[in-house]
């Protein structure tokens, strides 16, 4: 967990005295000092010191923007600017974001709050901010050209409206949108209910994160902004597994998870070991009668999904996008499928002329998770992450939901690997293993049973020809 920098502490910890100061300065003509977050680690929940009370959220690898109260108006200062985001350990990407990070900070307010947001543009081009899902005056909706002039470079615009509806929302530019979102400009907005709400449960843990994607050529540092679908870095809050904060909860906690999608495709988000209900969308809380149990919910482009569950099964439960290519990092798409092609003997021959030649994928691609092949500087290995039993062969939009009996209330730190009670883990069968009948007939016919090579329906061995074994020397990870 990251401790906020001193300016942040000034706002968060000493918010009461800040509010006092605010009155003393009376007119408060100046801008609120922008709070910049230099670290990409998860900040502790920002407990409100001013304004109406609420139970704060935590943002995976993110933080909540402090505010100041000015005559009962909550004032925030967003700075749109180029940032460097560490997507995974040592993999740094030049992004555009807000207040030092991509995504920008989460904004948390309470239903009925009057909110004033100063937006300073430090990008090399104009921008604007659209408050996705909010009820607000048309001139505050942030579509440049339609609702306002775009905010020129170096200028500050002010947005002001009442947060009318409780729920989970997002913010993002509505000026040169394609470029600015491809560069990482987005953030989350949570409006807490002002009183007990019939459709909003009180929970013990409240997490939020954005789904976002980038196209960063291995070895480069800047996303390609014209990419339409062929992204290679699939992120939760601009981070990839195994460097995303895990969701750590206490056994029997009621848990809410808020997910927003500003990629170019949908993501079926899947949780292991528990059922959940979708309790909210960007249209607000769903009526309880409309809810049903799920273990996967699709989050379409431009959507928010808010899910809730009772964490009543201890363990390390996978939580991930179910599109298998989205749990990979940068990889070579041009690599041919080699499954079932037997390379025995060929590699040794080729090695005589090309000593560093290797075959990829003849037994599947799992070898890549074990090998951690040499990759160009500044990229993320295609499949990575290690658990207590070895390689996970995962990357990208994969995470772990950790349920522990002894996780303290309000403690979001990683409890480490789950210790499985004796007799509750999958284990190796130790008895006699008879040869499968289909292989017995093949052995009788004089062939060598090679799983995956032989056609069990043909009843005879298909002799494998080495000339068909077209293999290429892998060029390292490329586009995914
Ligand atoms: Cu996905």
From TrEMBL:
Keywords: Metal-binding, Oxidoreductase, Signal. One of its GO terms (molecular function) is copper ion binding. GO terms for cellular component: periplasmic space. Transmembrane segments: none annotated. The keyword 4Fe-4S does not apply. The keyword Ribosomal protein does not apply. This is Copper oxidase. It comes from Hydrogenophaga crassostreae.
């Amino acid at each position: 967990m990251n401790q906020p920098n001193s300016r942040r502490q000034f706002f968060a910890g000493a918010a009461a005295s800040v509010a006092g100061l605010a009155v003393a300065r009376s007119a408060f003509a100046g801008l609120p000092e922008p709070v910049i977050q230099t670290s990409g680690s998860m900040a502790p929940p920002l407990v409100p010191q001013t304004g109406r009370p609420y139970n704060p959220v935590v943002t995976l690898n993110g933080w909540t923007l402090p505010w100041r109260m000015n005559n009962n108006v909550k004032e925030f200062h967003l700075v749109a600017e180029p940032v460097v985001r560490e997507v995974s350990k040592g993999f740094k990407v030049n992004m555009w974001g807000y207040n030092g990070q991509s995504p920008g900070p989460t904004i948390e307010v309470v239903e009925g709050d009057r909110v004033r947001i100063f937006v300073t543009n430090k990008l090399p081009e104009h921008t604007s901010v659209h408050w996705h899902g909010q009820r607000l005056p048309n001139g505050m909706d942030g579509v440049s050209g339609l609702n306002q002039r775009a905010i020129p470079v170096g200028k500050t615009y002010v947005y002001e409206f009442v947060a009318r509806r409780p729920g989970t929302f997002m913010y993002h530019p509505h000026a040169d949108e394609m470029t600015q979102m491809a560069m990482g400009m987005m953030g989350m907005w949570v409006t807490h209910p002002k009183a007990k709400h019939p459709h909003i449960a009180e929970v013990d843990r409240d997490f939020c994160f954005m789904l976002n994607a980038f196209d960063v050529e291995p070895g480069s540092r800047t996303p390609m902004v014209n990419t339409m679908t062929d992204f290679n870095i699939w992120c939760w809050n601009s981070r990839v597994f195994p460097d995303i904060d895990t969701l750590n909860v206490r056994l029997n906690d009621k848990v809410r998870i808020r997910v927003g999608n500003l990629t170019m495709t949908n993501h079926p988000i899947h949780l292991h070991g528990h059922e959940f209900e979708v309790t909210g969308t960007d249209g607000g809380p769903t009526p309880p009668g409309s809810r049903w149990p799920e273990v996967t919910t699709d989050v379409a482009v431009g959507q928010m999904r808010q899910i809730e569950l009772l964490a009543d099964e201890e363990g390390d439960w996978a939580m991930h996008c179910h599109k298998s290519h989205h749990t990979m990092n940068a990889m070579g798409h041009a690599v041919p499928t080699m499954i079932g092609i037997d390379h025995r003997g060929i590699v040794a021959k080729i090695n005589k002329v090309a000593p560093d030649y290797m075959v990829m994928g003849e037994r599947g691609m799992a070898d890549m998770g074990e090998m951690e092949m040499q990759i160009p500087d500044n990229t993320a290995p295609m499949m990575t992450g290690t658990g207590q039993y070895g390689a996970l062969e995962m990357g990208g939009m994969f995470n772990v939901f950790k349920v522990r009996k002894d996780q303290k209330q309000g403690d979001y730190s990683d409890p480490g690997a789950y210790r499985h009670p004796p007799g509750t883990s999958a284990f190796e069968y130790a008895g006699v293993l008879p040869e499968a009948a289909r292989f017995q007939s093949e052995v009788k016919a004089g062939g060598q049973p090679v799983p995956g090579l032989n056609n069990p329906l043909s009843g005879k061995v298909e002799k494998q020809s080495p000339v068909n074994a077209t293999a290429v020397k892998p060029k390292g990870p490329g586009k995914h």
